[in-house]
Amino acid sequence: MSLQPTPSHTVHVPLGDRAYDIVIAPDAIDQAGTRLAGLFPGARFGIVTDVNVAEAQLPRLVASLDAAGLSHAEIIVPAGESTKSWMHLQDVVDGILGARLERNDILIALGGGVIGDLAGFAASIVRRGMDFVQVPTSLLAQVDSSVGGKTGINSVHGKNLVGAFHQPRLVLADLSALDTLPPRQFAAGYAEVVKYGLIGDQNFFFWLEANASEIGAGGPARAEAIARACAAKARVVVADEKETGERALLNLGHTFGHALEKATGYSDRLLHGEGVAIGMVLAHKFSARLGLAPSQDTGRIEAHLKIAGLPTTLADIPGELPPTPVLMDAIAQDKKVSRGALTFILTRGIGGAFIEKNVDPTAVSGFLEDMR
Amino acid sequence: MSLQPTPSHTVHVPLGDRAYDIVIAPDAIDQAGTRLAGLFPGARFGIVTDVNVAEAQLPRLVASLDAAGLSHAEIIVPAGESTKSWMHLQDVVDGILGARLERNDILIALGGGVIGDLAGFAASIVRRGMDFVQVPTSLLAQVDSSVGGKTGINSVHGKNLVGAFHQPRLVLADLSALDTLPPRQFAAGYAEVVKYGLIGDQNFFFWLEANASEIGAGGPARAEAIARACAAKARVVVADEKETGERALLNLGHTFGHALEKATGYSDRLLHGEGVAIGMVLAHKFSARLGLAPSQDTGRIEAHLKIAGLPTTLADIPGELPPTPVLMDAIAQDKKVSRGALTFILTRGIGGAFIEKNVDPTAVSGFLEDMR
Predict the structure, then answer these.
(1) Residue B271 above 80 pLDDT?
(2) Most buried of the four, A194, A329, B19, B78, by CB within 10 Å?
(3) pLDDT of residue B340
(4) Measured between CA atoms, how close is A100 to chain B, in angstroms?
């Protein structure tokens, strides 16, 4: 734990009439009541959270809303990726309607990426859209899923195949919530922080390398890393909100990662961020094999991810993986496909990611086979 | 059946980058292949329809797509309002993903309002949004639900409480499909045609009165009635796409109507358009009771709806209705509520509908009790 005082950061996401702030602060949850009362006078609130976060953080949020005199209802769902399902979507929607929340009321997503994706999607479809606020409590949610408006659930056909673009009205990233996060969860979120460096900002990656232990310890460096990650994401989202172009860069490592998550049943065998970590290494190795990127970059990336406690190879995944053709099938069904051609985020090196729409499936298949 | 040749009409909906045409023609389904091939080069198509429409119209659509060399898959669901459910939404979404339709492919909603609402909602959430085309085969769908982008399903808490705004890319309204429609279904759709006159165009209502039998017979008068209804709806939708204001006028008769539909279990006891017909009469009677509208207008409206074969009073609904407090509960849960106050579409007479946001629930309750 750092002994320096941790400053607050605010990152603005300038999306016109859908613009919003990301507030990154040690006490963001405690500020919630005051901020929400100011932004949404007269509104009632529905809080969606999971059983674990309900225990760890809900009392703080409720105390903050109560102190501000805000009316609220709670909808509590099980924890884990399997909650991003049709069944729990319907539970949350029924909970909102049962609590008589109306179009001008506000849904609050209190939790990690699963809760943000699920509650945000529910908010987008109740009465054809109600506003919502993200209160991300995991590092992954703070730097990635709570920002940018992608919401959704998983399908038997793959991850995040059902959903909506629905921007939050405010993001409150509470740094103190990260102190209670299991180390494995923190590491998984950190993979997404590293991703922003790998995509388009090598100086950020070098800064992360140099500040790894300070970031791990919490305090100002961690706050800065999160704010820089959010700002990077915000820039991409503003340039391409609906992912018709460059937003796809944010999927670096995700096509391989999603296939591996599907192969492991979206289970604790492989967290999303862990899949992304392995996927980013694979994307760099594949780019190196195609002669696009220097292979020494791959080693440097692997080393930094390992220091952060992340898996980097297929062999790091516990248990058996399905045969390569099954992985290829998951890759083809991933939503980053267009008219049958495989689209991948490849790279020319650290900070040099680009979208390649004509990747040869045979080359990917052969590469994956060699990586086993 | 009219002996005059029936002209085609095209109504443009100028919604910027979401603009589209409504083509009203006796052979709109037969034109589908050519039109779709021109608009969506390289796309594959998924056709969502119900078992009844599959028998009556699917062969024509398939023949048209085949003749244009377009690849297509079919997703067939049961007929009826109960198909607008979570279960069938998931069926349609899984069908789309199972058919490997991608972001740039096109979903076609072939059928009545249920199919358009269900398929349109599915299109809006698959991979966070794919394009779709409406091929409405009922009068209700042609003049109302296929135009304007409202999609959704029903909830145990009420009708259309879950959904999205998702504009179609094209609407193909096939007039010949109406010739096979059961008279009761045709009449139910006609209630929505009358609605446009009642909302803001008394001359259209007078024209409908004068041409009732020609419209019933089919041919040019029917085509004109549909085109004028679509144009009226398009004007309102363009002025207020997301229903933050005047689009709510389209709900004339719908708050009462939805409550009655809920009270009758969304069943064949009361079709949507029948509920709207009774609801419109109730809205006019209630407005007259409040001294807002001349009571002779109510009689004139009732007479015209009766001629069209529509119910106009609560007593016209077969079976028992639940007690008034249960109806009031459904009215309060209807989505046209704002911070607890009841919002109704009231009227100053034929063509003079307006939005009233502060309707006294006690007055509504007493009125409903008197109407039983």
Answers:
(1) yes
(2) A194
(3) 59
(4) 7
B195 is catalytic: no
Q: What is the pLDDT of residue B266?
A: 80
One-letter amino acid at A226 equals: I
Range of the domain at A63: 9-178
Question: What CA–CA distance (Å, rounded) separates A105 from B140?
Answer: 32
From the list A147, A163, A159, the residue with the least C-alpha distance to A109 is A147
Most B CBs within 10 Å, among A88, A90, A162, A343, to test the B interface: A162
Q: Are residues B249 and B138 in the same domain?
A: no
Q: Which residues of A touch B237 (CB under 8 A)?
A: none
Q: What is the CB-side half-sphere exposure of residue A349 using CA atoms within 13 A? A: 8
- A157-213 pLDDT, tens digit per residue, is 888 999 999 999 999 999 999 998 999 999 999 999 999 999 999 999 999 999 999
Residues B94 and B112 in one domain: yes
B138 marked among binding-site residues: yes
pLDDT at B2: 52
User: Is the domain of B332 the same as that of B198?
Assistant: yes
Interchain CB distance below 8 Å, A338 and B100: no
Q: Is A113 annotated as a binding residue?
A: yes
Rg (CA), chain A: 20
B43-63 pLDDT, tens per residue? 999 999 999 999 999 999 999
pLDDT classification of B114: cutoffs 50, 70, 90: very high
Structure tokens of B129? 């949004």
- Specify the number of domains making up chain B: 2
What is the domain-level CATH number for residue A334?
A: 1.20.1090.10
**pLDDT reading at A3 higher than 70:** no
Q: Residue A247 catalytic? A: yes
Q: Name which of B304, B302, B273, B308 is nearest B288 in CA terms.
A: B302
Q: Are residues B245 and B123 in the same domain?
A: no
Q: Is A87 on the interface with B (CB under 8 A)?
A: no
Distance from CA of B258 to the nearest CA of A (A): 14
Of A104, A129, A339, nearest to B42 by CB-CB distance is A339
- Output the domain CATH number for residue A119: 3.40.50.1970
Q: What values do phi and psi take at B279, rounded to 5?
A: -60, -40
Nearest Cα of chain A lies from the Cα of B70 at a distance, in angstroms, of 14
How does DSSP classify residue A291? T
For range A33-38, the mean pLDDT: 98
Assess whether A207 and A157 both reside in one domain: no
ipTM of the complex: 0.90
Q: Is A234 among the domain residues? A: no
State the amino acid at position A323 in one-letter form.
P
DSSP annotation of B145: I
Residues above pLDDT 90, as percent of chain A = 85
Does residue A214 carry a catalytic annotation?
no
Identify whether A13 is part of a domain.
yes
Asked if A90 is an interface residue toward chain B (Cβ–Cβ < 8 A), one would say yes
- Taking the Cβ of residue A100 and every Cβ of chain B, the question of whether any pair is shorter than 8 Å is answered with yes
Question: Does residue B73 sit in the same domain as residue B89?
Answer: yes
B337 vs A102: CB contact, 8 Å cut-off?
Answer: yes
Mutate to test the interface with A, among B162, B337, B343 (most CBs of A within 10 A): B162
- For residues B59 and B87, the answer to whether their CB atoms sit within 8 Å is no
Helix axes A361-371, A272-289, angle to 10 degrees: 110
- Cβ contact, residue pair A338, B103, below 8 Å: yes
Name the CA radius of gyration of chain B, rounded: 20
> Active-site residue B100, yes or no?
no
Dihedral sign for Cα B90, B92, B93, B95, please: positive
Could B125 and A129 be called an inter-chain contact, meaning their C-beta atoms sit closer than 8 Å?
Answer: no
Around Cβ A80, how many Cβ atoms within 10 Å? 15
Which residues of chain B have a CB within 8 Å of the CB of A124? 164
B156 and B259, same domain (yes or no): no
